[in-house]
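Before a computer can learn anything about folding, someone has to put a protein's shape into writing. The three-dimensional part falls to structure tokens, numbers that each stand for a local backbone shape. The protein below has been through that process, and both of its lines are reproduced in full.
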Amino acid sequence: MTGEKILWLTESVEMPQLDFDRLGRWIEAVAKSHDRMVGDLNYQFCNDDHILEVNRQFLNHDYYTDIITFDRCRGRLLRGDMVISLDTVATNAEAVGSTYDQELLRVIIHGVLHLCGINDKGPGEREIMEANENAALELLKYEV
């Protein structure tokens, strides 16, 4: 690991109880599996009110979402800012019959996958993103 830095921040919510060292190793492994290197990544956990404000201000979207990813990558070096609404993560977990913790992990890696160049808005892209999320979640099982 060569100087990468992952910052975990909060805005109007409590910090989730996560093993951040383990998550860092996992993110590094996922990036490597996509021929990328981890640079500066900033995660900000927030509530629905804050993510709606970010969505309106930067994307002109007037709706809630689980994650917004701001890409600052340089070539193969992953750099970016991810804003995650813990409220929407909880709502989505319930809607899809998942646990909150599992859905949070999926969203955390979703942002990294966007930085790796995987999209989810066009025809067939959602299925590709889900397959990559599932593969990344499998990697976490082996990341100690």
Notes: The mean pLDDT is 95. The longest strand covers residues 37-46. Helices lie at 20-33, 48-59, 86-96, 100-115, 125-142. The chain has one domain: 5-142.
